[in-house]
Amino acid sequence: MDVYSCIFLGANFLLFLSGVSSAADTITQSQSIIEGSTLISREGGFELGFFSLGSSTNRYLGIWYRNIPVKTVVWVANRRNPIEDSSGVLMINSTGNLVLLSQNTSVVWLANSTKEASSPILQLLDSGNLVLRDREEGNSENYLWQSFDHPSDILTGLDRRLSTWKNWDDPSPGELTWGIELTNNPEAVMWKGSEKYFRSGPWNGPRYSGAPELRYNPVFEFNFVNNENEVYYVYHLINKSIISKIIMNQTNYSCERYIWIDATSTWSLYSSVPRDNCDDYNLCGAYGNCIIGESPVCQCLKGFQSKSQETWNPKDWSQGCVRITQLSCQDKDKHGFIKFVGLKLPETTNSWVNESMNLEECRTKCLNNCSCMAYTNSNIRGGGSGCALWYGDLIDIRQVSLGGQNLYVRMPASELGRNLVLFNFNNKLGEGGFGAVYKGTLEDGQEIAVKRLSESSGQGLNEFKTEVILIAKLQHRNLVRLLGCCIQGEEKLLIYEYMTNKSLDTFIFDQARGKVLDWSKRFHIICGVARGLLYLHEDSRLRIIYRDLKASNVLLDSEMNPKISEFGIARTFRGDQTQGKTNRVIGTYGYMAPEYAINGLFSVKSDVFGFGILLMEMLSGKKNRAYYHPGESLNFIGHAWNLWREGRPLELVDTCLRDSCSLSEMLRCIQISLAGMSSVVMMLSGEPKEPGFFARKNPPDADSSSSKHQSSTNELTLTLLEAR
Ligand SMILES: *[C@@H]1O[C@H](CO)[C@@H](O)[C@H](O)[C@H]1NC(C)=O
Ligand SMILES: *[C@@H]1O[C@H](CO)[C@@H](O)[C@H](O)[C@H]1NC(C)=O
Ligand SMILES: *[C@@H]1O[C@H](CO)[C@@H](O)[C@H](O)[C@H]1NC(C)=O
Ligand SMILES: *[C@@H]1O[C@H](CO)[C@@H](O)[C@H](O)[C@H]1NC(C)=O
Ligand SMILES: *[C@@H]1O[C@H](CO)[C@@H](O)[C@H](O)[C@H]1NC(C)=O
Ligand SMILES: *[C@@H]1O[C@H](CO)[C@@H](O)[C@H](O)[C@H]1NC(C)=O
Ligand SMILES: *[C@@H]1O[C@H](CO)[C@@H](O)[C@H](O)[C@H]1NC(C)=O
Ligand SMILES: *[C@@H]1O[C@H](CO)[C@@H](O)[C@H](O)[C@H]1NC(C)=O
Ligand SMILES: CC(=O)N[C@H]1CO[C@H](CO)[C@@H](O)[C@@H]1O
C-alpha cells in the first residue's frame, strides 16, 4: 500500500491559452487561460481549466484526468477561494507572477515563484505537474514554481501537507491532513484536525516501518529521499497506461489509492490506510503493543504492566503500561536490552538517527544515556545498518504480521533473562590462562568475549557457581565485567564484556602500534590499572589478590580505558583459598608467588611488584623477561636500578615517548616502580638493598599463566600508587 504517497499527489493545472490552439500545453506572458479554454499535457493525460463541482456554481481552476469519463480532479488552485462567476483569468502578469484573477482584477490566487524570470512560461507536464519556468534557463527542470510542491494550499516552509476536501462539492480544506513530520527520524503522519490520527512509522530503507505491504509491485515504484535539504516520498507508475490516483477521503477518514478500470469505467480501490484498529494512533498508550487477534488487542511489552487495571479494561488503554521494576539511573551500567521482534517502530518525535553507526555502537550510545529507552538499526537492508535511538516513553507500537522490525528496549538488570548467545568457536581471540577466548554477539548486538574453561578444573559445580556469582559482583570501571556463565556437562563458559582494542601488550611491545599510545594515554592507563588493583585489594567486598598483572591481562576498551581481566577465576581451579583468615585470597594458577603461603599482606605486595614491572614495561616499551643488554649480566630491573643510581633514569624511556612525556610524571613512575620493588624485596629478605632479582637469571617462561612462579615481589604502598 503506497497510500503514503497521498502526500505527494501531484498538482495539476490546466491552462487555456486564449488565442492559442486548444491543444497547447504552455502559455507565455502575453497569453492567458479563461473560461472555455484549457491546457492539455503533451500526451493528453491531463487537462487544466475551470470547472464546477456537484450542484455548486462556484468556479475553480484545476487539473483533471483527461482520458477518463468520470471527471476526477487531481489539483485545485483556488480551493479556498472560489470564483462566483465566469470571469476567471489565469495569466503570467507583466512582472512574471502567475496569478488567477477574477474579472474585477482582484487576485484570487497566486503562485509565489522563487525568482523573477526574464521569459517565463507556464507548462502542464505529462506527469500532471504544472510548472512555471524561465525559457532562458538552460536546465528545463529548474522550476520557478511547480504544483507538485503545493499538493494543497496549506504550506509552511518545507512542511507540506495534503488535506482532504471538505466534501465532494467543496475542495476547501477538510480536517484530515497528511504529511511528513520533519523530525530527526522523519515519518508520515495523518492528522485529524490537531490530533494525530495515524503514523506510517519511520523509513527503514525499503519501506515505512509500519507498512510491510509497501514492497515491489507491478503498479508503481517508490522511493524516500531524506537529506539536509528535503524529505519526501515519491512514486512513479510503472506502466504509463495505468491511471491511478491517491485521495484523502474525508467521508471515512482514510487515504486511498485507486486504479482506473477501463472495462467498467470505474475507480477500483487498490489500498488504503489506516487499515485496522491497531493503526489508530497510540491506541495502547506508552509501552503497549497492539496485536490484532489478541484479546484485548493491547498487550504490555514484556517487563511492563498496565498502569491502571480499571482503565485497561474494558476498552481504554490510553494510560498504557509502566515498568514492573523501575529503572534506576545509578545502575545504568547494569541495564541491558530486551529484543522485541516484528514491530512497527515507536513514534519518532524524540528519536535520533545516525546512519553510519553499527548496532553495537548504537547500543553503547543508548546505554550511556538513561533517558534513551530503545534502539535499533535505522536501515534493515542487508542485515541492518545505522542507528536509531528513542528518548522517553515509547508510543504507538504495534505488531505487524510480516516484515516488522526488531526493537531493543532498555531494561533493568533484574528483568534481563539473557538469552545466550551465538558464538562461533572459529572466532578465537586468544588463549588465556584457563582456556581459549572467543568473540561472540548477543541477540541485542552486544559483543562479548567468551572464555571456554579447560576441563582440568577439579572443582565441584556448586563451588564453581558460587565463585562465579561472587566475582560477577565485582564492579569497577577498571575491571573487565563478567556478564554471566554457562555450564553444561563438562563445558564451562564465562561471558565477559568485549574489549575492542584488545590487550595492552599489543600496543606497548609493538613499534608501530606503540606510537598510538603517547605518554598521556599511558599515564591514563597506569592510573586506571592502579585503581582497578586498589579496588581488588581494598575496596571490593572480597579481598582479591590478583597475582597475574602483566600487559597481556590489561585490556583496552574503545576509548583506551584499561580494564584488568582474568581476575579471580583461578581459584576455581585450585581451591587453595587461604584458610583461617577473614580475607579471601584468590590467585591465578601458575602465578602463585612463593610468599603466597605467608599471609595476605604479602600477597598484596606481590601484586604491587607486578605493577612495578608493568610500569617499567610501559615506560620502556620492552618486556621485562625479554630484556637483554649487551655486556651486562643484569636483568631489566637491575639495569633500571643502575641507570637510576647513575642519574640517567630517562634512558629507560621508550624513544617513541620522548616527545609526549611529562618529565615529572615519568620520573615519578620510575621512582614508584623501583621503590616498590626494592622495599618488597627488603621485606621479603630482610636485606634493605637492591631490588629483587637484580642478577640476571633464566627468565621464567614469559607470558604463560600456567608456568612457575613470578620471581620476585616488592613493596609499594597503595596510597602512593594512587597519586593522581
Ligand atoms: C503581478 O502580480 C503580483 C502578485 O499579485 C503583484 O504583486 C504584482 O504587482 C503584479 N504585477 C503587475 C504589473 O500588476
Ligand atoms: C505567497 O506568499 C505570500 C507571502 O509570503 C503568502 O502570504 C501566500 O500565502 C503565498 N501564496 C501561495 C499560493 O503560496
Ligand atoms: C501497460 O498496461 C496496458 C493496459 O493494462 C497493457 O495493455 C500493456 O501491456 C502494459 N504494458 C506493459 C509494458 O506492461
Ligand atoms: C470515500 O469513502 C466512502 C466510504 O467508504 C466511499 O463511498 C467513497 O466512494 C470514497 N470517495 C472517493 C472519492 O473515493
Ligand atoms: C474507507 O472506505 C474504504 C472503501 O470503502 C474501506 O476499505 C476502508 O476500510 C474504509 N476506512 C475506514 C476507516 O472506514
Ligand atoms: C555518526 O556516527 C559516526 C560513526 O560513529 C560518527 O563519526 C559521527 O560523528 C556521528 N554523527 C553524529 C551527528 O553524531
Ligand atoms: C540524554 O539524551 C537527551 C536527549 O537527547 C539529552 O537531552 C540529555 O542531555 C542526555 N543526557 C545525558 C546525560 O547525556
Ligand atoms: C580503539 O577502538 C576503537 C573502536 O573500535 C577504534 O575506533 C580505535 O581506533 C581503537 N584505537 C586504537 C588506538 O586502535
Ligand atoms: C468588488 C468589485 O470591485 N467589483 C468590480 C468587479 O469588476 C466589475 C467590472 O469591472 C466592476 O463593475 C465591479 O465593481
Task: Note the main attributes of this structure.
724 residues; alpha+beta; Phosphorylase Kinase, domain 1; eight-stranded mixed sheet; five-stranded antiparallel sheet; elongated
What does the model show?
α6 (519-539) packs antiparallel against α8 and α8 runs antiparallel to α10. This protein has four domains: 26-273, Agglutinin, subunit A (Orthogonal Prism); 278-415, no CATH class; 440-497, Phosphorylase Kinase, domain 1, CATH 3.30.200.20; 504-722, Transferase(Phosphotransferase), domain 1 (Orthogonal Bundle). Helices cover 16% and strands 30% of the residues. The chain is of the alpha+beta class and 724 residues long. Bound molecules: 2-acetamido-2-deoxy-beta-D-glucopyranose (NAG) (9 copies). Residues 103-104 line the site of one 2-acetamido-2-deoxy-beta-D-glucopyranose. Belongs to the protein kinase superfamily. Ser/Thr protein kinase family. Residues 274-310 form the EGF-like domain.
Topology:
Blueprint: E1 26-28, E2 32-34, E3 39-40, E4 46-51, E5 60-65, E6 73-76, E7 89-92, E8 98-101, E9 107-111, E10 120-124, E11 130-134, E12 143-146, E13 155-156, E14 159-167, E15 170-181, E16 187-192, E17 195-202, E18 220-226, E19 231-237, E20 244-249, E21 254-261, E22 266-273, E23 288-290, E24 298-300, E25 304-306, H1 309-312, E26 321-323, E27 336-344, E28 351-354, H2 359-367, E29 372-376, E30 387-391, E31 397-399, E32 405-411, E33 422-432, E34 435-441, E35 447-453, H3 461-472, E36 482-488, E37 491-497, H4 505-508, H5 511-514, H6 519-539, E38 554-556, E39 562-564, H7 571-574, H8 600-620, H9 636-645, H10 663-685, H11 718-721
Bound molecules: 2-acetamido-2-deoxy-beta-D-glucopyranose (9 copies).
Domain Bulb-type lectin: 24-145
Membrane topology: Single-pass type I membrane protein
Protein name: Receptor-like serine/threonine-protein kinase
